[in-house]
Structures are given as C-alpha cells and as structure tokens.
Amino acid sequence: MKKFINEPNQFVDDTISGIVSAHPDQVKLLEENNRVLLRAQEKSQNKVGIVTAGGSGHLPLFLGYVGEGMLDGCAIGNVFASPSADSMAQMIRACDKGAGVICLFGNYGGDKMNFQMACDEVEFDDIETRLVIAGDDIASSPKGKEDKRRGVAGIVFAYKIAGAAAERGDDLDEVVRVANKVLDNTRTMGFATSPCIIPEVGAPSFQIADDEIEVGMGIHGEPGIEVRKMMTANEVADLAVNAILEDLDFSGRGKCSVLINGLGATPLEEQYIVYNRVYELLKEKDIEVKYPHIGEFATSMEMAGLSITLCKLDDELEDLLSAIARTPFYTNFNI
Question: H or E segment at 220?
C-alpha cells in the first residue's frame, strides 16, 4: 500500500511536528523531548494535571486531545508501542502544578508498566500521582473480568469529562472519582473489515477475506470474538448495542452519549448510517441520546471498520461533557 510518508522511521516524529506546526496556539513540544506534547495555554496554579500516553498510529488518539478542558500532556511511542518510562516521567513533571497528576490511559501491559515506573520516579520530586486505567472494550474480556478489558475509543469520554472537572478546579481525589465514574459507565465494541499496515513493517497486520468482518477486534489488530460473513450496517448496530446493554445496566429509561468511531478507512457516510440504527434502537428502549460523536476518534492507521461506544450519563456527567474544550481534534463551545 502506498503511503504519504518520508522515511518510515521518521513517521512518528514527522506526525508530531505536523501537529505542532498546525496548532501552535494549543500545543507545544517539551523542550528536552520531542515525543512529549504539552498544552500550550498556561494552566492555573493548583490545577490537577491529566496526562496520557500510548503508541502512535491511532490519531487523533492520543495526541489530538491535549489542550484546554482535556489533557495537559501526552507521551507518544512508536506505532502501536508504548513510550518509555523516562518520557512519561518528564511529561508528569512538566504537567504538575502542585495539585497532583492523573495518568489516564488504556489497559495495555507496556503502558501500565512504564507509567508505574514513571510514577515511582516522580515520587522523589514530591509529585502525587494516580493511575486511572480505561478498559471499555467488552469483546476483550467477559463480564466479571472487567480488569482484563482493553481500553479503546471510550477513553475519549474520560478525557473530556475528567478534563472538565480538572479545569473547573476540582481536587485530585474528586477528578479521580469522576474519571472512574465515566469509565465505569462506558462500553465499546469494535468491528474490522481490513487490516492496517505499520510503516516500518510494510505488510498487513492480519488477513481477512473481502466478504468477512471480524467482530470485537482491537485497535492494534488483536483478535476479536469471531469472524463472520459481512454484515449490514443495521446488523452491526444491533449486535453492538444489544451486547453493550447486556453489559451496562440502564435500569429502564436513561440517557447516554453515543460515539461512532471510524478506524481509519471507513467513510463518514457509513458511520452515520450505523449511528442512525443505534439511535433508533436506543429510542425504542427509552434511552435518550445526548451529544452524539460521529467521526474518527481512535483509529488504527488505515484499518477499515468502526467501533460503537455508549457512555451512560447522569446530570453530573452530562454537565461536564458539555463544558468547554479546545484541542487540535476536539472542540466544544459550551453547548
């Protein structure tokens, strides 16, 4: 597959440079580390810092959510690879304003190990840190074993809502509570119809026939639940919504936000077709949809497919979701 890149081993650095060049009013590089992106706007003293980290290849995750009302920093690794513990520690120090730093990231082994090492390191600088780990992918582990689930597109809701809580001045314990509340009420299921190609590898990450779809595949190409013959948009929506509602109890009438996430090569038109069916299904169950998100939020290079996320809302989470945010890939003007 042809790609608009220069040297494959420069893919990540060129991407980060492009983001900084395009959005200098919102983000900047850490001077001593060009793999750490920071919020450009000056933060108030005693604001809780929120940082994340992960491999590249998922844009706008993770780099695209650094900015006002969301993340204060992001450390990025090579494609689908965790950044180093040293990068994470440098980022935490840069984002500490005296109120502590929350490390909010997906449930992946390398990220967990490196963040823990980074937090241990900055403890010597008297920086208080907390780990908050997203695991919204219901296909990756069954109910009852939620601690094994992967973090996927649903983490965007945690970035937004926890970020709003930190922006308004909540203390460390309160922002951690809000972040965990969002994650406890967020579920995702993904579907893939074609592989991606990592620039430095130059070959597809997996194989799937033209008339097949993989149900539950992860954003790195991790195996899903099963491979089926290609399904219609309505069938995909039905499967995902029914599975999520079995896992996330709405107890009758409620409200939620829906995120339809394109994995990189799925047209926006198709995403809206899927959303329409999701909306119909939720309406039938007296679940009101608030602030729908349709587009690319957590991609996997040029993989074709999408994921469906439901975030159950109460008044507190809805208010924070509607708060102002301004980042390179997520802007919200206090709806």
Answer: none
Is the whole model's pTM more than 0.90, yes or no? yes
Burial class of residue 141, CB neighbours in 10 A (0-12, 13-18, 19+): middle
How far apart CA 327 and CA 61 sit, in angstroms, is 12
pLDDT in tens, 295-311: 999 999 999 999 999 99
23 is catalytic: no
Catalytic residue among 35, 39, 47, 58: 58
Query: Cβ contacts of residue 120 below 8 Å, gap of 6+?
Result: none
What b/e readout covers 176-212, taking b as 16+ CB neighbours within 10 angstroms? Answer: bebbbbbbebbbbbbbbbbbbbbbeeeeebeebeeee
CA–CA separation, 273 vs 308, rounded Å?
Answer: 12
Question: Rounded to an integer, what distance in angstroms lies between the CA atom of residue 194 and that of residue 305?
Answer: 7
279-282's contacts with Cβ under 8 Å and 24+ in sequence apart are 281/237, 281/238, 281/241, 281/242, 282/241, 282/256, 282/258, 282/310
Helix (H) or strand (E) segment spanning residue 43? none
Of 160, 187, 220, 293, catalytic: 220
196-214: pLDDT as tens digits = 888 888 778 788 999 999 9
**Consecutive H or E run containing 85:** helix 85-95
Active-site residue flag, 220:
yes
